[in-house]
Write a structure and sequence with these properties.
Helix content: 40-55%
Radius of gyration: 18 Å
Number of strands: 6
Number of domains: 2
Largest sheet: 4 strands, parallel
Order of helices and strands: HEHHEHEEEHEHHHH
Distance between the termini: 39 Å
Shape: globular
Strand content: 5-15%
Length: 179
């Protein structure tokens, strides 16, 4: 297949395959005859996609926290014994996991929620939440980095912002942004 051939070539080159969710809504949001995104996640893993956008649970893309956790389970676990929510027993054997990607409307204030949903074994793609910082993109990146390091260390954003001017400024800009 096309993806299988691409997988072989990427392995030779030491490159990864990124799965973007663009246009997924054409088939995942049709309530009467669509395809559930969990199926898309399974397809991605079966095809050897290295990382794929799955939503956020907190940003602007569709899907709540429970849906993100289900998608993450499909992408990461080697075995799942869940039967609720249309899950069937799934043994992935030695098929490698796929890294979940959270993107869409993310800003530093969402890092505690992202960490609770995804853990650290994920990609969090910040666009406007970094580049929209009043001091520029470097300060936006610093705000995200400071927030991630602090949250992983068990600190609150308010506590981290006391020693991170970049995060304090970002929180002032983004604290009212809710999706």
């Amino acid at each position: 297949t096309g993806v299988g051939s691409l997988r072989k070539e990427m392995d030779k080159l030491g490159l990864s395959i990124h799965g973007h969710r663009a246009m997924h809504a054409a088939f995942t949001r049709l309530p009467n005859h669509g395809i559930e995104y969990r199926v898309v996640a399974k397809w991605a893993r079966l095809a050897g996609i290295d990382h794929i956008h799955i939503g956020t649970g907190v940003g602007k893309l569709e899907g709540g926290v429970a849906e993100m956790k289900e998608r993450i389970e499909i992408l990461r676990k080697s075995y799942s014994n869940r039967v609720e929510n249309m899950f069937f027993e799934q043994d992935w054997a030695d098929l490698k996991p796929t890294v979940p990607v959270a993107s869409g409307g993310l800003h530093p204030g969402m890092i505690p929620a992202l960490y609770n949903i995804f853990g650290m074994d994920a990609f969090w793609a910040f666009g406007g939440g970094v580049h929209g910082h009043p001091e520029g993109s470097m300060a936006g990146a610093r705000a995200v980095r400071d927030a991630v390091e602090g949250v992983v260390a068990g600190k609150s954003l308010a506590e981290i912002a006391k020693t991170s001017k970049a995060l304090e400024q970002a929180m002032g800009i983004w604290e009212e942004v809710k999706f």
